[in-house]
Every structure is written in structure tokens, then in C-alpha cells.
């Protein structure tokens, strides 16, 4: 690794020390805009697909398309991240992602078949599969080791801040634009193209670069290096397993269009606010963590927070007049149910951020630099595919317990979310028993 002379190490006791590192600032600025655009696109895709198909299964297929791309690309992406210039990989992936956004804008404007939407989402997910491991490993070259845990916290906070503003702006723009255009989602896709361009320029200005010391040819053995390392490190394996199954079972985000339109009756702007609730909770958690000393019992904090994530997911599925209100025999005004649901998602986001910080910091610090790309690739493969497969699982369960059983779509969505939250709590108990290393894990270093 090489760092510019401007990136002198500030005192580690300063909570804002990492922001005096020029390369880290540029990296965060680019990430802020890229994630904001991606989150706006996510809202637009969910809104457009549900408007055109009225099918929760169509929403679930988004996750399946993106998961397929990750399965095809992630391992080669990890190898390249360890054997090519990581900055070049990031820039190339941003170009491909921007082109996919332009494709979505054209498809939406022409009202082309929805199959083309899935094709563009596959392409975009493939680009992210190369972006994630290179970006995660590249972060270690931007800050000194002693500041890395705090850099991860701020990096996560900026990611979540983008995830707050992106869905909210996306939902509000769709609600406004649909009064003036029959293709409001197309404008959102074009905005995502612009934010990807801003990220490209920011990363281009970063001076740090990744030096490959001993490049390896691509082979089955090289591709398997990340798996071998993770399975040899029981602590990392346990953390990844916990997060993977928690996200797979407890993710309710793919069904938010159903909750916004059919259950909470809040429309496109309400969908944007619900999409923003989780990252808003994560931002609050990141600010708290950034202004407090590193966790002394990180493993226990991780387990408890994932359990809280599961409980909050169950609560989100129930706090509406369709489920809990009718069961208890009373009704609350619609805005009250909406903000209760918003609050449960806020708690989900805050709890999930602890998992992100502990896992990402531990994976990067416990992995040698020549393996960071491949280990980050396996990490993103597990977590990313569980995100996307979890979206498909949520949509499939909602379809089975809804239309397939001649119930309302709302019924299927509620059953899907509540059962997933219960499953997450069961996973926490199982992981705590199978990996005692997590319970004993103390301060991250």
C-alpha cells in the first residue's frame, strides 16, 4: 500500500481524525452519492414493478436476479481485487453500473417488458459484485490501522446516511413526478447515472493506490483461498453465518412496497420514508459508536443486537390495523400505525449497524492484505446473496400465504415478515451455542 504524504496520522483519540485524511474524505464523498443514487433506484424499481405487475413475487424476483449475478461474479471479483489495481476495478465497475442505470431509464421511458428490467438489474448487480470486494479492501489503504475501526464506523454511517436520503428523495420525487409524467421512474434511473458519475470522479482523485506484490494466476485454488481462510477462522465464520441467516430470514425491505400501498396506505412518499427508516436507525447508531470508545464485549453486543433486529422485525409485521389492530379489537388512525411501523424499522437499522461494524472491522483486521480481496468477496457473497435470496424468500412466502392460498396479498406479506423475524431470533440462539468464540470476543483490534 502507499499513502500520500498529506495523509499523516492524526491522534487516534480524536473522533473526527479520519476526516483530516484527504483520500478518506474523497472516498466517503463518492460513496455518499453512489449509495444515495442506488437507494433511489431501489425505491423506483420496487414502485415501478409493483405498479406494473401488482405481484409480490415480481418484487422477490429482483432479489433472485441480483443473487444470480453475485453467484457468477463474486469469486472472480475477489481474485482480481487481490491481483489487480483495486482503484481501477472500482472505476470500471462504476462505469458498468452507470450504463445499467441508463438502460433502466430507457426501458422505463419506452415501457418495455419487465424482463428487461431484470436484465439491467443483473448487470448492475454484477458490477457491484466487482465493486464490493475491491472497495472494502481498498479502504485499508486509506487510513492507518489504529484508525481503521473508527473509519469503518464512519464509512457505515455515511452509507446509512445515503440510504436515508436516497429512499426519501426517491419516494418524494416519484410522488411529485407522476403528476407530470407517465414515466417517473425513468427520471430516478437517470439521477442514479449522475450519482455514479460523481462517485467515479471522487475515486479518480484518490491518490492512494494498491500495489500487488505477488500476483497469482486465476485458478480454482486461488478462487478458493477466501473460503479456506474464513473456514479456518471460526470467529469470522460464526459472524458471517449469523449475519447471513439473519438477513435471509429477517429482511422485510423487499415487501415494503406492499406494506406502503396495501397495508399502511401511505403511497410512494410513504414508501420512501419506510425505506429510509432502517438506514436512519443505522446513522443514529453509527454516530453513537463514533463518539464512544470501541466496544469491550463486541461479540455479546453483536448477538444481542441481532436478536433485537429479529424482535423489531416481528413488531414491524404486526403494527398495523390489518393485523394487530383488528386482533385487539380497536383501530388507531392510519398515521399512528405508519409511524409505529417506521419506529420498528428504525430499531432494526440501529441494531443491524452494530453487526455491520463488528463484522466488517474484524474481517479486514484479521485478514492479511494479500487475501483481503478474496476474503471480502466471500464475505460479500454470503451477505449479498442472503440479502437478495432473502428478498426472493420474502416475496415467495408472501405469495404462498397470500394469493396462492386465496388470501389477500397483505396477509401473505404480514406472515412472511413475522415468521422471518422469529426465524432470526432462533438463528441467534443457534449461533451463540455453536460458536462460543463470538460470546467471548472482546475488544476489536
Secondary-structure blueprint of this entry?
Elements: H1 22-53, H2 56-83, H3 86-110, H4 114-139, H5 148-177, H6 184-204, H7 220-223, H8 225-232, H9 234-250, H10 256-263, H11 267-290, H12 298-318, H13 321-328, H14 334-365, H15 372-401, H16 409-434, H17 436-440
Helix pairs in contact: 1-5, 1-6, 1-11, 2-4, 2-15, 3-4, 3-6, 4-15, 5-6, 5-11, 5-14, 8-15, 9-12, 9-14, 9-15, 9-16, 10-11, 10-16, 11-14, 12-14, 12-16, 15-16
Task: Provide key terms for this protein.
445 residues, mainly alpha, Growth Hormone, Chain: A, 17 helices, globular, disordered N terminus
Overview of the structural elements:
Helices cover 78% and strands 0% of the residues. The chain has 445 residues and is an all-alpha fold. The chain has a single domain (17-210, 219-440), classed as Up-down Bundle (Growth Hormone, Chain: A). The chain starts with 21 loop residues before the first helix and ends in a 5-residue tail after the last helix.
Number of domains: 1
Give the SSE string: HHHHHHHHHHHHHHHHH
Category by helix and strand content: mainly alpha
Number of contiguous helices: 17
CATH class: Mainly Alpha
* Rg measurement, Å: 21 Å
CATH superfamily: MFS general substrate transporter like domains
CATH topology: Growth Hormone, Chain: A
What's the β-strand tally? 0
Globally, the shape reads globular
Mean pLDDT: 81
Which stretches of 5+ consecutive residues score pLDDT under 50? 1-12
Terminal residue distance: 20 Å
CATH architecture: Up-down Bundle
Largest sheet: none
- What percent of residues are in strands? under 5%
Amount of helix: over 70%
